[in-house]
Amino acid sequence: MSVEIDLSESFKAYDVRGIVGATINAEAVEAIGAAFVDVLGLSGQDVLVGGDMRPSSPEFSAAFARGAAYRGANPKMLGLISTDELYYAAGSLGCAGVVFTASHNPAAYNGIKMAKAGAVPVSSDTGLFDIRDLAQSYLDEGLPVSTEAPEGTVAEIDVLADYAAYLRELVDLTGIRPLKVVVDAANGMGGLTTPAVLGDTLLPGLPLEIIEMYFELDGTFPNHPANPLEPENLRDLRAAVIKHGADIGLAFDGDADRCFVIDELGNPVSPSAVTALVAVREIARARAAGEDTPVIIHNLITSRAVPEAVAAAGGRPVVTRVGHSFIKAVMAQEGAVFGGEHSAHYYFRDFYNADTGMLAAMHVLAALGHQDTPLSEFAAEYEPYVSSGEINSEVQDKAGAVARVLAEFTDAPVTVTRMDGTTVAATDGSYWFNLRPSNTEPFLRYNGEAIDTATMESIRNQVLSIVRSNA
Prior knowledge:
Helices cover about 35% and strands about 20% of the residues. The model has no long low-confidence stretch (mean pLDDT about 95). It folds into 4 domains: about 5-160, Alpha-D-Glucose-1,6-Bisphosphate, subunit A, domain 3 (Alpha-D-Glucose-1,6-Bisphosphate, Chain A, domain 3, 3-Layer(aba) Sandwich); about 160-265, Alpha-D-Glucose-1,6-Bisphosphate, Chain A, domain 3, CATH 3.40.120; about 270-380, Alpha-D-Glucose-1,6-Bisphosphate, subunit A, domain 3 (Alpha-D-Glucose-1,6-Bisphosphate, Chain A, domain 3); about 385-465, Alpha-D-phosphohexomutase, C-terminal domain (TATA-Binding Protein), CATH 3.30.310. The protein has about 475 residues and is α/β, with parallel strands linked by helices. The strands form 4 sheets. Strands 1-5-4-2-3-6 form a 6-stranded mixed sheet, sandwiched between helices. It has helices spanning about 25-40, 55-70, 85-95, 130-140, 160-170, 190-195, 235-245, 270-290, 305-310, 325-335, 355-370, 375-380, 400-410, 455-465; strands at about 15-20, 45-50, 75-80, 95-100, 110-115, 155, 180-185, 210-215, 250, 260, 270, 295-300, 315-320, 340, 345-350, 355, 385, 390-395, 415, 420-425, 430-435, 445-450.
């Protein structure tokens, strides 16, 4: 007896994430493939289908292709791919497509990230929930026979070499000083893309000595979870950087669309510092090409160092809400050259406004390799403030908790803004903090920053004490 699937349990605001066999299975995926074609009007067109190294990805890719072909599309099977490979393919080939991945989620999960032609994201605002609802009806009632076009044909294509070559066109690493680089792929797709882009498996070698960690593709994640946002999952990489006397460490998440950076001392370089560093490089390149004031996008909880660095370099910073669909939309509206988030998602105009951890890593390698200062000193220029990191508090009455905090700061010299939660900023620039409620969990998320550690800790402790007082 087949499991009854309720797709509302796995369709999220930006993608699909579910537990294999419980909230997502091959039968559901086949219905999703058919609905993807129908909702986006793709009958008679090519549709890209790829997947990560999770055990269920090949089965799900085949099921999606069956559903898409049944409704008249022509699936192009990409095989094993990273998420940013899908974005590259959707952009360069002008096709809609999907990648089966659950990113950093545990092994029991799988899911789908979707893109329209040109790597335009598919979110709840742009058709994702329409696909969900139509797929649910197909799942419950059966797939109708296509009347628009005959059943499509399935073919296989490989985009890895073209993806690698394109990234090398965007950042030239051939002239940098030799660097020793430790890369932790966490048994995820970085184990496939790193040798192709930074190594010599498909392209000529670069002045990089790559020390590989956990490059074996294994969706059961035998070494550690593929979520570098959690400090514990960076422990092995930090130790390896010191052991090997490396210049830099790179950590990718499961689908390799995010990249975290470790300096030569084994300390993390904040995603905000990476955002500022890459922004300055992209501003210089755009200005050299004739742009007067290139636009850089950053979300509201990146460091204040980001807009300051952007303005100092001659760019225009634009702040947006947290979340890739917001970033990508504003990127397109503003014609922005680059965008960055605190979660280590980095977006590039030259990469179809999509996010790619590998391209961000290449920018850091180029910046480091074109000067002699160690990364710890070089990155410190972009980290003048002290950050709290994101801290979750389990709170049932989130609005009440925020109101109590604001009452405490009523007489303080601060400004309060309401974009994506509530941000309180000292008028003298000494600190700011943001309280942002989770849409899916009983969490109130705190992010803060200050001019020194004592101020950061004092404000953090004060706010969290108030938040948790009636939790």
